[in-house]
Amino acid sequence: MRIPRLIAAGALAGSLLLLTAPAHAAAAQTTAVTAYGYNDNDDGNGNSGTARISYPQIHTQATEGSGSYDDPATFATDPNEYPPGTIIYVPHLQKYFIMEDGCVECTADWQNGVHHVDLWMGPAAPQPEPALADCEKYVTRSSADILVSPDPGLPVDTTPMFADGQCTAVIH
């Protein structure tokens, strides 16, 4: 549990007035949000069909996790946009994600001044098509508000986005 800092705001009739302030505020960011999975993830050498990630932080391979703060899913972007280990919260999915992978399209967008994150969905094994691609499109938003470096405690939907060969994502 995070304890708020106390800030002395001044004296009032001989007593100290204390105000609380959050330890830090998450930054809201309007961002292009896309999704990827095992079938369309590459190993960095142009070979698709892998769960390999470029910047392992808490996982050894891409994972959907539960989407909670303590078990975030993997996301990809340009490492200059959000450094590896950055945690984000995606409100329309009610899930936390951690930056652990690179994304060629995200890098191109970032170089053109566009924020872009790519969210991992599904298990780390081949998935049926077009089900996976259709589910990726379902959660995609050309412009969505996300929270960067959020605190824990936001609402979390632990429903996987893609499971048992079908789209199970819930949009909030």
Automatic annotation (TrEMBL):
<protein>
    <submittedName>
        <fullName>Uncharacterized protein</fullName>
    </submittedName>
</protein>
<feature type="signal peptide">
    <location>
        <begin position="1"/>
        <end position="25"/>
    </location>
</feature>
<keyword id="KW-0732">Signal</keyword>
